[in-house]
Specification:
The chain is an alpha/beta fold and 332 residues long. The chain folds into 2 domains: 177 residues, HUPs (Rossmann fold, 3-Layer(aba) Sandwich); 117 residues, Rossmann fold, CATH 3.40.50.1220. 26% of the residues lie in helices and 27% in strands. The chain contains 9 helices and 15 strands. The strands form 2 sheets. Strands 1, 2, 3, 4, 5, 6, 7, 8, 9 and 10 form a 10-stranded mixed β-sheet that branches. The radius of gyration is 21 Å and the shape is globular. The chain starts with a strand and ends in a 6-residue tail after the last helix.
């Protein structure tokens, strides 16, 4: 029988998503829910959201403490007192706390572990329970090695790498605790404004079920990446080289210095497969690689590989995809 902890806590940042529980949040909930009998949440939100109770309850959260953050953005130093207060108000001494892997999450996890006398684990790719203690599998040396980390102090503050999981829905109810309103009046560091870049109409690369990724080998005609993505209704990602060349936005960069994705289908065009890129897409469901170098490392992890000139292969693929789309039955 699988060992479970009594309780665990997840920290969800809904400020950056304008109050929306997105695929990244659901993934963290699914991972945390699998290792505990009862899951609780601390939610950073721009305002008190009436929808939280029902939505979180349906995906397995028993109770939630809202931290209302009216500012455009928040800093770690301003957030820590409220996080500590919210955790203590749950009255779950020693229960692990799970975060995402963004910079703010990693800072908060490490700092909160010190405040609470626990330990911090970064970049966990798997978690399980061993004799009432949390054990995590983590990436090391850019993903070329994996290590096992046993939490020896409680609470463990753990940053979870995205795995593309979806929590099972049920008819559960979520209790909403007393909200905490974040105040920045006595802080010397604060962010006054956050500017959002306008979207291009495609799915966000961190949320898309299908992602087309271009590397240096796609630079002669980046429109092939865009055309294939649009034909498949996919998000667009890029390697660091492609971003440095100015072919794609920094927000599309996947890997060690970019975002981590876990789509159902990952398609790479002209990507060699350097470790600093593949560390950000290893949890993808099906991996398809198109590259003219038969010795490219990407083929070692690809489920399907095509060795050849992508400027010949992609137009042929587009022709077949568009023909298939044209013959699909239309909904009335």
């Amino acid at each position: 029988m699988k060992a479970l902890l009594n309780s665990a806590v997840v920290v969800l940042d809904l400020v950056s998503t304008e109050g929306t529980i997105d695929a990244r949040h659901k993934d963290i909930i699914a991972q945390a829910r699998a290792c505990c009998e009862e899951l609780h949440a601390i939610v950073l939100c721009p305002e008190i959201l009436d929808s939280l109770r029902g939505e979180l309850g349906r995906i397995g959260v028993s109770s939630v403490i809202p931290i209302v953050c009216p500012e455009a953005a928040i800093t770690t130093s301003a957030l820590l007192p409220s996080l500590e207060s919210a955790y203590r108000s749950l009255n779950l001494p020693g229960a692990p706390i799970f975060f995402a892997t963004r910079f703010l999450d990693r800072e908060c996890a490490a700092s909160l572990a010190v405040i609470l006398g626990g330990c911090a684990i970064a970049e966990a790719v798997e978690i399980h329970v061993e004799e009432d203690r949390l054990r995590a599998t983590t990436d090391a040396l850019g993903g070329s090695w994996r290590g096992e980390v046993l939490a020896t102090a409680a609470p463990a503050c753990v940053c979870l790498r995205s795995r593309g999981l979806i929590p099972q829905e049920n008819d559960g109810q979520c209790r909403v605790g007393e909200p905490i309103v974040l105040s920045l009046s006595d802080k010397t560091t604060r962010v006054h404004e956050r500017a959002y870049q306008s979207g291009d109409g495609r799915p966000k690369v961190t949320e898309a079920q299908v992602v087309v990724v271009g590397g240096r080998g796609a630079g002669q005609d980046w429109s092939l990446v865009e055309d294939l993505a649009d034909a498949l209704g996919a998000g667009i990602g890029a390697t660091r080289d492609a971003v440095d060349e100015g072919w794609a936005k920094r927000s599309a960069q996947i890997g060690q210095t970019g975002v981590t994705i876990a789509p159902k289908l990952y398609i790479s065009l002209g990507v060699s497969g350097a470790i600093h890129h593949t560390i950000g897409m290893m949890s993808s469901g099906t991996i398809v690689a198109v590259c003219d170098d038969p010795d490219a490392p990407i083929f070692e992890i690809a489920d399907f590989g095509v060795v050849g000139d992508l400027y010949e292969i992609v137009p042929q693929a587009l022709e077949h995809i568009r023909a298939w789309r044209a013959n699909e039955p239309q909904d009335n």
